[in-house]
Amino acid sequence: MHAEIITIGDEILIGQIVDSNSAFLAKELNKIGIEVSQIKSISDKEDAILDAMKDAQKRVSLVVLTGGLGPTKDDITKSSFCSFFNDKLVHNQEVLDHIEALFAQYLNVPINDLNRAQAMVPSNATLLENRFGTAVGMWMENDDTVYVSLPGVPYEMKHITNNELIPKLKTHFKRPVIVHKTMMTYGWGESQIAEVIHDWESNLPEHIKLAYLPNLGRVRLRLTARGEDETVLTDQLDRLFAALDPLIGEIITGFESELPIQAQIGDFLQKRGQSIATAESCTGGRIAALLSSTPGASAYFHGSVVPYKTDRKLDVLGVPKAIIEKHSVVSDEVALSMAKRVREVMKSDYGIAVTGNAGPTKGDSDAAVGTVCIAIVGPDNEEVETFAFGENREKTLQKTVNKALEITRKVLAF
Amino acid sequence: MHAEIITIGDEILIGQIVDSNSAFLAKELNKIGIEVSQIKSISDKEDAILDAMKDAQKRVSLVVLTGGLGPTKDDITKSSFCSFFNDKLVHNQEVLDHIEALFAQYLNVPINDLNRAQAMVPSNATLLENRFGTAVGMWMENDDTVYVSLPGVPYEMKHITNNELIPKLKTHFKRPVIVHKTMMTYGWGESQIAEVIHDWESNLPEHIKLAYLPNLGRVRLRLTARGEDETVLTDQLDRLFAALDPLIGEIITGFESELPIQAQIGDFLQKRGQSIATAESCTGGRIAALLSSTPGASAYFHGSVVPYKTDRKLDVLGVPKAIIEKHSVVSDEVALSMAKRVREVMKSDYGIAVTGNAGPTKGDSDAAVGTVCIAIVGPDNEEVETFAFGENREKTLQKTVNKALEITRKVLAF
After folding, report:
1. Distance between CA atoms of residues B65 and B58, nearest Å
2. Residue B152 Cα, gap to closest chain A Cα (Å)
3. Residue A319 and residue A334 in contact, taking contact as beta carbons nearer than 8 Å
4. Pairwise CB contact (< 8 Å): B192 & A280
5. Residues A83, A88, A93, A96, CA torsion sign
6. CA–CA separation, A136 vs A197, rounded Å?
7. Does domain A177-256 fall into CATH 3.40.50.2000?
8. How far is it between the farthest Cα atoms of chain B?
9. If you write DSSP's letter for every residue of B278-342 in order, what string do you get?
10. Which of chain A's residues have a Cβ under 8 Å away from the Cβ of B346?
11. What CA–CA distances, in Å, run from B259 to A159, A405, B22, B184, B406?
């Protein structure tokens, strides 16, 4: 059971936006056993759309198109559907009622002809309701291939996918089971891991595939299994990963879950009735922004102080001047003091602190560009470490955030 | 002059990562007049790679592949190149020297056979140096089509593109001029704008194209012109946009520049020798993280206080308890007080403050989910406004950040 995703829009082809819709769709389709064999981004011209629709039919039984639906002139997916399926647009009163209700509820302007035109849909299309927007989703079939068109606005597309498309696909297609599991490692490079696990990898069964996914010091190892029975496949992956423990146990930091690490930290703290706060210099609030991005974060996240200027570390956070003068502002001692101070200021159980120099120039310290000190202080334990993350500013900041959350996990010991 | 981008990797097809490489490449190619007509993400199997390479040759004169290069088994682009070009892998001493130097400089482990294999390259390939990694870029030609292979690790890919690929493309191909200009608006929907500018849009010359790009309350209007002379095209776009002033002047917030809005704010402050700080409740440090993401931000960004818990607004930031009790924690009065207090605490000229309830549940205030108050206070002026951003938490947070930066621009009056 293979699918193809086609995203329509010149804004992708000129690099004005990154296509994140495809990743969302691919993940959701994969979860129900539909394998995406290709993703294509094309121009919003009827020729390009028709070519892509025809081309996909040779290979797959499901084609999901996003984008190219909306009130203005650059939206031509509906007319392409009519050409492809030899159909015509007809007025749909239910869609018009919905558009009028949306305008009445959210906007202060009267509905115009362009909006009214959005209630014109191909006569043979099964419609997929778009509760949050005026562009309706469409499902049409040609021989054994299903074509689905979704709007490009991400939250509308996601809503239709979860509430309309996925349930319909589940009943329409017979699908195999696909199970992924991803182990996370930190510390070794891709080739070093590959050398050590070579025999294990060579002995993987035919239906299970390994991929190495390196990124900013982390290498993730992903196993993908295809088969009939989810329990059996999951069990096989668990056993295979367990066999890696004696080989690379020292670098394994856990398994990738549906939850990002900041949500895992939040869950753990909330269950224990504990709280956390951050004091961030070079990262400028990125760790706080991540910790607070999880719904319900106020149960465990108390807040943050970002003393970007050196003096603010003294007067706002209360780091003793003597420590900065003795050890310099980028030092383990200052990071530890910041973590301790932010626990007190924010009245939290744990404090994460970061002080460093991400570049491009040396700041108020003598530390080389890329030097970052990270400290985590809790009620009973503390951890501090200095890193040399290199000269790329953005990379250094991202690595710092990753590393700070990894160390927090270690200190929390979950 | 058309190009196609092919990204190789199952991690994209299962939705594990978002393909941001293509957007970068598309933008860089576009800048030098090379139009990307299609972007394709495919599996890391030799069949899929060869099919995509063949298929692209029918349509374009440049094919850029990313991913599928690296030390481990799942990397098969080089063997696909050999099949496609009927070539064979040969040892390249220069590449090996480079790999050995990288290992000596950055890693503490000896080079292994997998790394040594990375010095094997197709005998007819022109190599594109990868200063930051072990996977070298390749340039090969077949009839009139150029095929380029780049590693998938984003910073390595970007570096090779900017330093090796773009200069080589500039000399290799004769290219037309493409000019984009994007106007930003805030306040009206797509269809309302389209109705008002209908006549203007209908009269656009053949070589200039308009696109509407709606996102979270902003609608961007992008004009794309193709021709011979950059000055002439730029002048045409300027005149066309100027003609929109009398039609939609009230909603125009500016033009999209290469600089994101936080960098524009930073530039402006730095030129005037002024500084800024943020006090953020529901946004949890996102505005601070953005303001500090620009290299050199320490020249104008003093820091942030994130009093996520209501009580921290009192004890850390010093908002008077009476104001919170009288007006509730989500109110214009509290936002203004936070902005004033953070100016004092962080000793900055401007203070941005946000207090709101992003949901999913009401918090310490009676304000409906989605209510956010944003205040900007400067030496001579202040601005405060309350918004109803709706029930989607993540959307509310993003809209708040966008809106806070827009209001800051307005208060700074640039």
Report:
1. 16
2. 10
3. yes
4. no
5. positive
6. 50
7. no
8. 80
9. EEESTTTTHHHHHHTTSTTGGGTEEEEEE--SHHHHHHTT---HHHHHHH-SSSHHHHHHHHHHH
10. 309, 312, 316
11. 32, 30, 20, 14, 14
SS3 category, B393: helix
Q: Which two tokens stand for residue A382?
A: 């503390």
Q: Concatenate the DSSP letters of all residues of A134-157 into one string.
A: SS-EEEEEETTEEEEEE-SSHHHH
Rounded CA separation B134/B66 (Å): 15
Inter-residue contact B300 to B271 (CB < 8 Å): no
Q: Which amino acid is at B200?
A: W
Domain boundary assignment for chain A: 2-172, 177-256, 261-412
d(CA B226, CA B61): 18
Q: What is the pLDDT along chain A (414 residues), one digit of tens a residue?
A: 899 999 998 889 999 889 999 999 999 998 888 999 999 999 989 999 999 999 999 899 999 999 988 877 556 899 999 999 999 999 999 999 999 988 887 777 788 888 888 999 999 999 999 998 889 999 999 988 999 999 998 989 999 999 999 999 999 998 888 898 999 898 888 889 999 999 999 999 999 989 888 776 788 999 999 998 999 999 999 999 999 999 999 888 888 876 788 999 999 999 999 999 999 999 999 999 999 999 999 999 999 999 999 899 888 999 999 999 999 999 999 999 999 999 999 999 999 999 999 988 877 777 899 999 999 999 999 999 999 988 889 889 998 998 999 899 889 987
The answer to whether the Cβ–Cβ distance between B12 and A19 falls below 8 Å is no
Give A99-122 as a DSSP string.
HHHHHHHH-SS---HHHHHTTEEE
CB contact under 8 A, A113 and B397: no
What's the CATH class of domain B2-172? alpha beta
What's the rounded Cα separation, in Å, for the pair A12 and B114? 36
CATH superfamily, with its number, for domain B261-412 = CinA-like (3.90.950.20)
Report CB contact under 8 Å: B10, A211.
yes
Alpha-carbon distances, residue B94 vs A190, B90, B114, B133, B149 (angstroms): 22, 12, 17, 14, 18
Burial of B158 (0-12, 13-18, 19+ CB in 10 A): middle
Contact list, B39 vs chain A (CB under 8 Å): 12-13, 19, 40-41
Tell me, what's the pLDDT at A69? 85
**CA pair distance A267, A294, nearest whole angstrom:** 10
